[in-house]
Amino acid sequence: MALRLLGVPWDQTSVGVKGARLAPEAVRRELASCFPYDPVRGRAASFFRGRDLSLGEEIRDLLREVARAVEQEEHRDPEAPLLLLGGDQGVTYAALSALHHRYPDLAVVALDGSLDLDD
Q: With 0-12 CB in 10 A as exposed, 13-18 as middle and 19+ as buried, what is 86?
């Protein structure tokens, strides 16, 4: 089964350590090193497909663009799981707002190493 990856190179609203904007490229690079070859097909593996968004500087642009991209991906292939790479909590809100009509009971599990808490 293929997974869809939607990269969101965004960390404008992060407090403290920046770097989430670099995650999509870094994750794709590591995934490519894990699954470099498909022996059944005799070619490079392509378990993961997707794209990275090109975002402006404003949070409202981010929310609109992420929601639009998630809706497009959902229409394109609703059966393949969609993973968001990078971004901050605003990315999660935008993505879920785009899916709420189809999955009204959708829940979120957020894994964040620092939760952007700085003392």
A: buried
**Size of the chain in residues:** 119
Angle of the 89-99 helix axis to the 59-76 helix axis, nearest 10:
40
In angstroms, rounded to a whole number, what is the distance separating the alpha carbons of residues 68 and 95? 9
Read off the pLDDT of residues 70-108 as tens digits, 9 standing for 90 and up.
Answer: 898 888 888 878 888 877 777 888 888 888 888 888 877
Q: Give the side-chain half-sphere CA count within 13 A for 13.
A: 15
pTM (2 decimals)? 0.69
Domain ranges of the chain: 3-11+18-99
Looking at the DSSP assignment, which residues form a beta bridge with residue 14? none
